[in-house]
């Protein structure tokens, strides 16, 4: 039994299905394939898009990578990142790509609304939509849906998909680097409960291809600007609110603060986890103001405390039990603080 089969034996059930395995045969007849992910793409979104794009291109297929908007600058080093098309920056040309595509791989999102300004172009494209995702409650918009919320990252599912095609022997270092980055970032550097024995087998295989895992971590997490470090320090010292009786911490950054520290996309990555690491804190919320009185929110929790339900019911969001996102429409940062304070007893009833 070869390595690909061994890894497939422990892979996600959705990728061991006949439907997943048969998709490879269908790809050969397609003239144009587009691979895309959600707006505000994180390491798992960018990593999975690039990993699959590399693999399909290396097999001789005509593939283009498309994202709704820019990713954080700490991911710009990923191989192939300079070839991605960004819808927000060139909607006409990128929309034309989506319109011409015969197949769109939709990675790391559970509904077209997660693609922001690209949603209409995605919905109206006549292309088949094949989804690979690990978020809960997927919408019914896909011709093929390969969804496993128990899996820690979409990159792991992409690896399993390639294993289902019996093509792990063709996996390049470029694809491996992108996959490793996505798994690393979406599992909190492999510390979340979603990490399984199979995850470690996947990581072992990727490292066995000769990738430099230490450099991947350094490039992703250790190349920080002075403004970024100062912004995080300010956030933790002056913009942190705690309700210790409920085990809840909140960090809110308004536009004035972001401009003061010359904010760039990705500069606040991981700040919410710093709040969650505080002794006695079990739920951490991070909110960052955008133009128009909109606050983008990240939720993290420990144990059985579900922040997905709070994000979905109160902040037009969703995600996972211990990691979710949402938005708040409000005039000021203080209005968000007051709103959360007023809801704590409803969200976390006291015995």
What does this protein structure show overall?
The protein has helices at 3-9, 18-27, 43-58, 91-100, 119-124, 154-164, 173-186, 197-208, 213-221, 226-238, 255-260, 271-276, 308-314, 333-347, and strands at 33-36, 63-67, 85-86, 103-107, 128-133, 144-147, 240-243, 248-253, 283-290, 294-301, 318-319, 323-329. The longest helix is centred in the first third of the chain and has 16 residues, at 43-58. The protein has 2 domains: 3-220, inorganic pyrophosphatase (n-terminal core) (Alpha-Beta Complex); 226-347, Roll (Diaminopimelate Epimerase, Chain A, domain 1), CATH 3.10.310. The strands form 2 sheets. It has a 6-stranded parallel β-sheet, with helices on both faces. The protein has 14 helices and 12 strands. The protein starts with a helix and ends with a helix. Helix 7 packs antiparallel against helix 8 (197-208). The chain is an alpha/beta fold.
Please give a handful of descriptors for the protein shown.
40% helix; 351 residues; alpha/beta; six-stranded mixed sheet; Diaminopimelate Epimerase, Chain A, domain 1
What's the structural blueprint in terms of helices and strands?
Layout: H1 3-9, H2 18-27, E1 33-36, H3 43-58, E2 63-67, E3 85-86, H4 91-100, E4 103-107, H5 119-124, E5 128-133, E6 144-147, H6 154-164, H7 173-186, H8 197-208, H9 213-221, H10 226-238, E7 240-243, E8 248-253, H11 255-260, H12 271-276, E9 283-290, E10 294-301, H13 308-314, E11 318-319, E12 323-329, H14 333-347
Helix pairs in contact: 3-6, 3-7, 6-7, 7-8, 7-9
